[in-house]
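Predict the assembly for these two chains.
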Amino acid sequence: EAQVTQNPRYLITVTGKKLTVTCSQNMNHEYMSWYRQDPGLGLRQIYYSMNVEVTDKGDVPEGYKVSRKEKRNFPLILESPSPNQTSLYFCASRDRGRYEQYFGPGTRLTVT
Amino acid sequence: TQLLEQSPQFLSIQEGENLTVYCNSSSVFSSLQWYRQEPGEGPVLLVTVVTGGEVKKLKRLTFQFGDARKDSSLHITAAQTGDTGLYLCAVRSGGNQFYFGTGTSLTVIP
């Protein structure tokens, strides 16, 4: 089954404790993105990747890092999480030349 | 300031009623997408419109792209409880960046 998977689905952590949210897709898509979804603000793009070792900032990259060492994986790293990064996070992938994005099920992160 | 403004923000209707939701911007786009998101899940693409004035139908859902490619509407005929969800419009800008509206949360009451 074609899908985007994210882990963990739920995470509660404390300020400053480094964390990684994993994302994996099995569709051989070149493009992958991370979004955060907040009430009243909608989905906002954090980072995106056009291919292995090629990443770029989205609309709200501050406080986040990403890496793309393999085509299927695109982890999101929070080096020093803060409470304002409490949010619902989605990973997405799409094929070259296509607009359609396939989203993962989301990761709900709470930073206390 | 949001690039895409969606209205209404919330909508609650009876099963069988018709409804229209809107996605507006002051910018021109080459294409626009509509997604539906159900609780606990990621958004799922419904349609992409690319031509000004284009109308696309997906069963009881009718999507229209404005003539000037600045806005779009989604009309649902005879709403069903299965239509309940968050409807999001999205555009691609600057190559690989995507922008989403804040969404319309639709509740269809049986």
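Chain B has no helices and eleven strands. Chain B touches chain A at residues 2, 4, 31, 33, 40-45, 48, 88, 90, 92, 96-103 (CB under 8 Å).
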